[in-house]
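Support reply, case 0932

Customer input (verbatim):
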Amino acid sequence: MLKDKPEKQSIFQKFPKTFWIANTMELFERWAWYGLFAVLALYLTNSTDEGALGFTQSQKGSIMGTVTAILYFLPIITGALADRIGYKRTLIFAFIILSSGYWFMGTVHTYNLVYLAFLWVALGAALFKPVISATVTKTTTKETSSIGFGIFYMMVNVGGFIGPIFSSKLRDAYGWRIVFIMAASAILVNLVLVTLLYKEPDREKSEDSLGETILKSLENIWTAIKDLKLLVFLIIMIGFWTMFNQLFYTLPNFIDQWVNTSIIYNSIANISPGLAAAIGTKEGTIAPEMMVNLDAGAIIFFQVLISALVMKLRPVNAIITGIIVNAIGIGIAFGTGNGFYVIVGIFIFALGEMASSPKFTEYIGRIAPKGKEALYMGTSFLPVAAGNFLTGFLSGDLYEAWSDKVSLLKTEVAKRGLEIPEISANFSQNDYFNRASELMGMSHQQLTDYLWNTYNPSKIWMVFSAIGIATIIGLFLYDKFILGGEDQSNSERE
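Our regenerated output:
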């Protein structure tokens, strides 16, 4: 009698429970982060009588740019801290900080307190990031790492896609406060998961003090960036991240102020009223965050296809190709007040992002000397941090000067010598716009069209696309003079 052959184990069964718990926590953390971040620019700057804070664009840029830059720089320290006190304990601290930070952000209204609350959130996110990546690394093997990180990045995008949908529908139905409650609640789910189900993976325990560990981390980063090939590449890629971040920092404000999305809503409603109601607002418009979320949705559906198309390209060539597409997409998105063109621009931008962003990480891994891959990968956050910092200025000071509807209306009011009270706690942005509309004898849409035609706020697209073009030129020169047309890895040279 023949014995039954043992069943072949599925690759998904080879992942331990902690791997799946880590991926689930990544999904909920991204849900919370992007659920807030996708609407944060609107919350900070929209009119106070809508429940928003009414800050200036410059204040928005300062908060979002500097705090997010700090978030991406802190993992140098927080990663070392996690190695000292343990992953599970670090995650518990991270989730307590994140949930309290999201809750607090929704209760304070002054610039300084909002800044501090968001900084507190950034600390929690910086504690979470290195630990969750390290957990995935330690719960995968050489055989399972490729699909394991594929699952991980899928969870990043799924969470980043779901979050803005929930925040958009919730704020439309219940106001701004519910967005922060949603984010805090998603993190509390993670707190339960890590407390009850997360098992500490094996890790090397250093005998160094925390100070010595942090100092060694900084020394290691310094050692890596002394490699000219790596350093120049990281500096050039600051341009990519500066352009990329306009999608979340600036485009929501631009759509909210200048794009008549009711036309899009009505076009969808003519085909499917149910779909229009599902993605639209109760006012019959499409919320800016829902339009921007097309980027994450496209990545979920098309990343595998785009990755296959660029698979055989040298990483630098794939990055250049992607950024060319990015520059075209961002130009279309900001270059017109037509909502359909904005959607096309966002989709084109997403295609470029899918080609360039994964290759960015791949290239850094390729040029790392053998045995120093993790060290080099640790530098990848540096251009992200610098890009966020620069984005804060462009999305703040530059947008306020060139494209902010409130600032342009104030200029027009001053030109005409009209007497309108200054925007304050008792006289909102909407009050100001209503009074100006009344004094100028125009409807809201007529006044918007007048400001658009008079001041050309869409000209800011030239700056954003120019940053992309400068990055492309930098990469061409880098490829020619430093790489010599070949992606020679450091490990091969050695």
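We compared this against your earlier run and they match. Two observations from our side: The chain has two domains: 14-225, 227-494. The chain has 24 helices and no strands. Please reopen the case if you see a mismatch on your end.
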